[in-house]
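Thread: Newbie trying to understand structure tokens

Hi all, I'm a second-year student working on a class project, and my supervisor (Dr. K.) asked me to get a predicted structure for one chain before our next meeting. I've only ever worked with sequences, so writing a 3D structure as a token string is new to me. If someone could post the tokens and maybe explain what I'm looking at, I'd be very grateful. Here's the chain:
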Amino acid sequence: VSIDADTYGYPGISEYGHTPLLINGSRKVEIKDFYKEFSETSLPFSFAKHSLYKGDSFMVGALPRILNSGNKLKGEAARLKNILMYEIPKSTYANNLCQGIEIVYSLERCIEIIDLLCSGNIDAIPTCHPSPVTPHSSTGIAAIEAPRGLLIHTYTFDNIGYVQDGNITTPTALNLSDMERNLKILAEELIKEKKDIRPDLETLVRAYDPCISCSVHIVQL
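---
Reply by user tm_fold:
Sure, no problem. This is what the structure looks like when written as tokens:
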């Protein structure tokens, strides 16, 4: 299961909460319904939560973005995607390749923005214009595609405007269940062939591009 926030449009984020999440490139889920469709579960052996979609693990990040929304790419990024994604299997390891494609996309997008700035056509650059807000008791949820994948922010405010509750669900947390599932599958296969399976497991973890602390502590130097 691959999930992204309908990326590569402009400005390339979730339209400040209005663009739905894409699941396997077809089904759409409104961001406001995230916690109706997804679940966060605490496990007895860990302080980290597992995120599931209808009881299944899923992946977020560059690979899901390319698989779900890669048809929106333009220029050299689109050309590379069309060439490389036919040669690379749709596996977790392809995530790093997709990150390379996204670097090209980002550079091309930077050039577009610089050209707009140099032309004086600043109004053509997507920006967020905050509106006056009257505080009242409410809860809001929004999503954005961070480099590592989908990032969910949820906050509850009181009638004065103070935050009473907050929940940040990071890409690493969203990927954790899928990461552990694939590690188990890989370990069960590798243990039949070799004694030292740790390097292969570390390679798989790094392919998910977890947060710095997670990626560092998985490897012993």
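A couple of things are worth pointing out once you decode it. The longest helix spans residues 94-119. Residues 88 and 116 are 35 Å apart (CA to CA). Feel free to ask follow-ups in this thread.
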